[in-house]
Amino acid sequence: MRFVHSADWQLGMTRHFLNGEAQPRYSAARRDVVAAIGPLAADAGAEFVVVAGDVFEDNQLAPQVVSQSLEAMRAIGIPVYLLPGNHDPLDASSVYTSALFLAECPDNVVVLDRAGIHEVRPGLEIVAAPWRSKRPTTDLIGDVLDGLPADGVTRIVVGHGAVDILDPGHDKPSLIRLAAVEAALARGAVHYVALGDKHSRADVGATGRVWYSGSPEVTNYDDVELDPGHVLVVEVDEADPARPVRIDARRVGRWRFVSLNRSVDDNRDIADLDINLDLMPDKERTVVRLGLTGSLTVTDKAALDACLDRYSRRFAALTEWERNTDIAVMPADGEFADLGIGGFAAAAVDDLVATARSDGDDAEDARAALALLLRLTDRGVA
């Protein structure tokens, strides 16, 4: 028996740093990756799909988002089991109980809206642990595992949240206790645990049966999400009493959120940065966060700004990594001697240079004014 394990679709997600039309393209990509699970599942011979929480970004969504999301799920073509998570819990405002969702929900979509056993077919069950609020007061998976028998039925647990061995806040009541999960696996009461909440693919513990699938499309930078963009095809051998499991990770995501740190101290470093940005593929689906450190002349800083401005129009977004950015700008000797201006204008430039070299409150404004002067001069305006 095979099925697809996915999680954290967070349909309706927005990212404030995306350029103009990049946001609707990113939203469409998150729906497209859902629809693409259909051909992948058919190729793998999967019976069904489980989505281990956070199907939607939240419970308050535009009607268009709900309708388009349900249409993407319809396109999968096989049963899709949705688990409410911390972003879309089964509270009083739940999207899953809205009139629109209930009216347009496709026949192949099933909401795991109660804790405990859901029969897929005779001999195969899903054990669900849905969230009913954003702050559970117990280990929801531990609650549904308690008392499950080892009776020869194949059981897939579908849950959401942090596992205690991966979370530093060990006193949180909602943490999933890995020891209880592994005990249920060891006695044969359950055979695979499909988790959501962590957006990177991860094997938890030592059994090879407890996995986070990660989000199928990236949601954060690569220093935070180490391995996003996958779904897992899970194979359980029902003919073997031990129910051995095999995991096949399939990459489906197409976007990248990249963090880069670079030192820039002269025009050669700027040229090297230019080359590196130019060589990056799929710019329209790539977000770059840049951390830059160094010391530059006003001329080189103007060249850096022009470089970044150019690539900010080519990438889905090019943003400054503020806590990793520290560039000192200082006018070099003779840097403004050949501008071809004289008289009062030349004296004003000299004053700006003196201010820029000072530690006064106006130094940053003076450097910005000198950089603008250089850019205007290069363009033949000044």
TrEMBL record:
Residues covered by the Calcineurin-like phosphoesterase domain: 1-164
Family membership: Belongs to the SbcD family.
Protein known as: Nuclease SbcCD subunit D
GO molecular function: exonuclease activity
SUPFAM superfamilies: Metallo-dependent phosphatases (SSF56300)
Keywords (A to Z) from UniProt: Exonuclease, Hydrolase, Nuclease
Pfam families to which the protein is assigned, alphabetical: Metallophos (PF00149)
